[in-house]
Amino acid sequence: MVTIKPGILILTPFFSPNIGGTERQLDDLTNALDDYGYKVYVQTYSPLTVTTKWKKTEKRGKNIFINRYFWYGHGLFNIVEKYPFICFIYLTPYLFIRTLFWLFKNHKKIKTIHAQGLNASLVGVVLSKIFNKKLVTSIHAVYELNPKSIVAKLNYQILKYSSKILATSDRSLDELQSFGISKDKLDVFIPWVDQKTFKPYDQKKSRQKLNIEDKFTVFFLSRLIEKKGARVLIEVAKLLPNINFIFAGIGPDAQYLTEQSKLFPNIIFVGTLKRNDIPPYFSAADIYCFPTQYEEGFGLVLPEALSCGTPIITSNKGAIPKVVNSTVAVLVDPTVINLKKAILDLYNDPEKLKYLKSNTLKYAKKYYSQKNVLLISRYY
């Protein structure tokens, strides 16, 4: 019999049915905590980057309780995220107000506030002081800040009140330490993949089911914003007409992808994919390509691809070299020339592709299984 453990408040601007790697990670976290006997309370917004149906309140599993508050979305976040102060105004005050009123009624249910990202952490700092709760913060990004900058100093002032700060990579941990945060407060927390959902399917059957031509295929899945590299990969696709390139995601570049898919037969845009629809696309592809153009904080989509048995070509930026290595992936400086060469190398060398593919599942199960949740539960 599972013992019900103290309540955890997950505080985040982004949660499913919003779509993204962080959202999938938080689904996995809340489900796993539920399995281990915790009561989980989520305070979040309505979907901010997708237009989809959503519920104001929702109960999942045995003990996951979600409150979503309507907030202005329709891609607004993709515009304001470039401007830290405007992004703060957009994400923080209203989440604070709604959660404050919720805690007045429910604070006895909560032992720990687990804030996701800096904006939620600031909310968590104030609420943890008011209601005398433990605060844990997860950082999902590498911010690329000068440690002496005003923004870095503000980040330090926010994060210093957390009892523990969890970074998703050594690269992120080093950056946080450069802000002046004590090493004792920091730890690297490795996300995991729901390997019951993200698992291999037969490639030929997947292609038939998805109506994909049975030929060499490259798959791209990410937010469709400039820094994720979709436009760079489109330029590669134009140079390789004998290879199919499937793009999935949502964001400002969606219209451009739609236009390019009409001009080039080997560019296929399938739009937004629900969580359960993703694994067959990984399985249908020969390669998953993630040409992110910035210092990626982790990239959950990488171990998801590996869990589906799909080798990777990806950027060598940020934390990615710690997430995957040369036994399962090819890492390059993500330029058009380098990506084209890497794809052609695997296209022309089936044995190398077979070698990478043979290691994917072992690698995913070794490093990204649900056992990682036990590492985070000790902070609650």
Explain what you see.
By secondary structure, the chain is of the alpha/beta class. The protein folds into two domains: about 200 residues, Glycogen Phosphorylase B (Rossmann fold, 3-Layer(aba) Sandwich), CATH 3.40.50.2000; about 160 residues, Glycogen Phosphorylase B (Rossmann fold). An eight-stranded mixed β-sheet has the order 3-4-2-1-5-6-7-8, sandwiched between helices. It has a six-stranded parallel β-sheet with strand order 11-10-9-12-13-14, with helices on both faces. α4 runs parallel beside α5 and α8 crosses α11. The mean pLDDT is about 95.
Topology:
Elements: E1 5-11, H1 21-35, E2 38-45, E3 57-60, E4 64-69, H2 76-80, H3 84-91, H4 93-106, E5 110-116, H5 118-131, E6 134-139, H6 150-159, E7 164-167, H7 170-178, E8 186-188, H8 203-210, E9 217-221, H9 230-239, E10 244-248, H10 254-263, E11 267-269, H11 278-284, E12 287-290, H12 301-307, E13 312-315, H13 320-323, E14 329-332, H14 336-348, H15 350-367, H16 373-377
Parallel strand pairs: 1-2, 1-5, 2-4, 5-6, 6-7, 7-8, 9-10, 9-12, 10-11, 12-13, 13-14
Antiparallel strand pairs: 3-4
Helix pairs in contact: 4-5, 8-11, 9-14, 12-15
Characteristics of this structure?
380 residues; alpha/beta; Rossmann fold; 18% strand
What is the assigned CATH homologous superfamily of the largest domain? Glycogen Phosphorylase B
Q: Overall pLDDT, averaged?
A: 93
Q: State the helicity in percent bands.
A: 40-55%
Supply the helix-strand structural class.
Answer: alpha/beta
Shape: globular
Q: Which strand order does the major sheet show? A: 3-4-2-1-5-6-7-8
- Secondary structure tally, helices: 16
Annotated CATH architecture of the largest domain = 3-Layer(aba) Sandwich
Q: Could you name the CATH topology of the largest domain?
A: Rossmann fold
Rg estimate, integer Å: 21 Å
Quickly name the level 1 CATH class of the largest domain.
Alpha Beta
Number of domains: 2
For the biggest sheet, the summary is: 8 strands, mixed
Which H/E pattern describes the elements?
EHEEEHHHEHEHEHEHEHEHEHEHEHEHHH
- Strand residues, percent: 15-25%
Low-confidence spans: none
Using DSSP, what is the number of strands? 14
N- to C-terminal separation?
20 Å
